[in-house]
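Shift notes (night). Ran ABC transporter permease subunit while the centrifuge was going.
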Amino acid sequence: MAVVTKAETPPRPPRSRRLLYRLRVLRHDPTAALGLILVVVLGYLVVAPLVAVLSDAFRLQYGDDVHAGQAAGEWTGYYLWRVFRSQISGLLFWQPLLNTLVVALGTVLFALVLGGGMAWLVTRTNVPGRKWLAGALVVPYMLPSWTFSLAWLTLFKNERAGGQVGFLQAQGVHTPDWLAYGALPIIVTLGLHYYPFVLLLVGNALRRIDAQLVDSARILGAPQRTVVRRIVIPLMLPALSSAVLLVVGRVLGTFGTPYVLGLPADFRVLSTGLFQSIRDRSTGVASVLATVIVVIGVVIVLADTRMTREHRRFVTVGGKGGMDRLSDLRRVRWPAFALGLVVFGVSVLVPVLTLLLSTVTRTPLDLSTFTLDYWLAERLPGAVGFPHGVFRGSELWAAAWNSLRIVGLASVICAVAGLLVGYVVVRGTAPRVAFFLRQVSFLPYLVPGIAFAAASLSLFAVARGPIPALYGTTFLLILVMAVTHLPYSSRSGIAAMTQLGREPEEAAQIAGAPWFQRMGRIIFPIQKGALVTGIVLPFISGLKELSIVVMLTTTGTELLTTLSIGLVDYGYTQLANAVVLVIALVSFTMTYLTQRLTKSSLASGLGG
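Came back to this:
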């Protein structure tokens, strides 16, 4: 009879040997450790600021204990009452909220009409110069958003604000306050800046509509209104909803234009109200306003995601030949081209030339008063805070150096971090870590820029544990700029790593190459296109960024954008215009070089 014996369990290796084995594995494949490091870093830089600003909204600040009847540092609902229910809640929140909604609605309608009309013109018609128009009509977004507001002031400014009056007022034509400041000029100038969003989104959607669907419906006897209602609009809904929500989200967080055109008429929106609360050192009120802006931003993006998911069932099935058929404009081809030129002129040439002429004339746009003093003079009469031309002194050069240095470093950090996030998400074996990194790296996109800046200020303004106070340092500006642009680089990194197979890295690993060598000689060289894009695009965007940095810069860390707004505060309109032109020139140059380097175009595909 056979005797069955229980197999003996082999003895476990000593603890030191197991630890040595894990270290060897970690040396050859530190993806798990890298993932944990990224989780901690992004958790502190992205999640912690939002938690800090939420905490400040419910924790009594020093100086408010007398009014609230509580001790400083205690949990409180005082700031909620002050913002939503007190006697000044209308001034603090409700009126700015109403003004924000009015501006957002007006800007959306303006951008939809202008951008949608131009999208149809360059994608679905045989208008002459379609490809050139498609590229030219995207140019307004390359300008800083408050370029248009400064040009508007140069033309329509009246005596209500300090400093030199605008062109019309100087010519004896009185411009009323409603035309010079407030809702109308803010809507028009923001609409001119953001209509390229609609042009790109709607234009790409129009290109995908199969003309055979429309022809089939007409052959079956459907009238034009039925074709539009049952075919065209359903196919366009995803692009239209994305365009609307994207513009609303951008308007919610924009600061420069409402500040320049709203401040003289005391027209506040949520972003300028938040800035004013921080300037007044009302930290608790500012935290509540920032939380509201964050919530609205998150709701907008989630709504966009849900609507896009719901509308995925509206798809086009057809041949490309039918899709590319263009409407023949016949006799109105050249008048349509002239209309496109007018839009380009109003949105690009008029503001840029207005700013340029204002910087070389003492009386706005009066060439008989031509001067180069605002650019080159060693001494400007009557100027105190900025007593010389922009090219004299050190202010412009210091701000330019700060901009190039801070934005450049932030862009490099952003690109490398985005690729590392993509590497861990795609190559890692921990699904929870991958999910966390994917979601948290995208979180800054949900938060309007000025609200995220307020959250970062709330976290880093004072020392917290081993982390010192970073307010007023270039390090904080670099961190915040890198984090706010991380959604773009991380999505680019994830897409790039998804398209790269494991074979090259596995072959190097078999050959004995350590992880750092594999990253430096295989992953980064292969993904240099994604790295270049991840560096250059945040660099271009960061050069003209104001909402994110306006609350974080100090005397030693001033950027070109904050220098321009500071000159507006002084009432030196011509000098502010000159600085904006410098920003626009650098932005144009970098955009052109980027498109040449990557062989791409912002309007690729729109013009055929």
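Confidence is low (pLDDT under 50) at residues 317-323. The CA atoms of residues 212 and 426 lie 40 Å apart.
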